[in-house]
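Checklist before submission:
- one chain only
- standard amino acids only
- sequence pasted in full

Submission:
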Amino acid sequence: MRRHGGRLRWGALLVVGAFALGACASAGENTAGRTVGTTLGALAGGVIGYHKDGKTGALKGALIGGAAGYAVGWLVDEYVMKRTKTAAQIQAEYKVPEAGPVPPTVHAYGVVINPDKTLARGKGAEATTGFDLVAATGARPSVEESRAIVAPDGKMIHSKRYSYKEIDGPGGYEFRQKLPVPAEADQGIYRYDSVLYVNGKEASRASNEFQVARSPGGGIAVAWLGPRMGGRRIQ
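Returned file contents:
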């Protein structure tokens, strides 16, 4: 019974410690995703570590798990969709026949990281995805995009795959998403890899680079360096 109580006390301490770790990682920053990721990662790591190596393992696991969860905050789920071209404009621009099968294709796929200016502590940059979707009239292809960030040391920080359910057929689309760059991020050049999928198959990809640097005022500067390689179009 005493042993069971000890486990409960350690479990409670891990929960408190996990939230504290998450709070420290995001103090003064609007980075809820990073806080939650840190908290859950620390808690999961601590529980696994406790079962393997008691109290020592719990502490080690919480720190490792918290660090892994912290990386989740680089990418968030929120985005804003804007339609840039109508279906009629797409049909005219790409000479889409009115009759006959029209396999869905992607054109002019590109990603831009902005703004190119100094950011206040805790504020993020913005990633904008744009593309033209060609498809038959009335067709509603499923469109997804995976995004990954690679740190200056070559290690992938995190990746996510988004499902753009707002797409209702052929047209031009733009998706703007916040890119919360942590104030503790290492200085250097980061790579931002994106892949667009149509009906589950890869349609196009893009790779961009952006630089993170400290500013004299205590914030960070995020500068988009442009495409790392040309996008690939698959018909």
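Reviewer check: The two ends are 66 Å apart (CA to CA).
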